[in-house]
Amino acid sequence: xxxxxxxxxxxxxxxxxxxxxxxxxxxxxxxxxxxxxxxxxxxxxxxxxxxxxxxxxxxxxxxxxxxxxxxxxxxxxxxxxxxxxxxxxxxxxxxxxxxxxxxxxxxxxxxxxxxxxxxxxxxxxxxxxxxxxx
Length: 134
Prior knowledge:
Elements: H1 20-30, H2 37-44, H3 48-59, E1 103-107, E2 113-117, H4 122-133
Antiparallel strand pairs: 1-2
């Protein structure tokens, strides 16, 4: 008797366009120790014969990563009228940002304020307070 269950069998997707980066990433997965090409291919929905074809292309230098764009130094030697452009003055580095430190501010009855940073030791603080009282 039929149980009413329908089984859908799916195959691998055909004619997918893989980017060079995707191909190289899949090949890198295949190169890991103990990994089987068939497992990696199945995980990505690609035939293992295609993975071997990509491997052959990579070995033959036909499948290579696109070069990473790089910045190169540029120097303008002359303006459009052929006159030399003076080199700009080097820009000094910005001053270091002030270090935020903990501080205590004490206001004495006569209005004098004493601000003490965390780098001041207890002995020095006692001397300053004694001098202000005296």
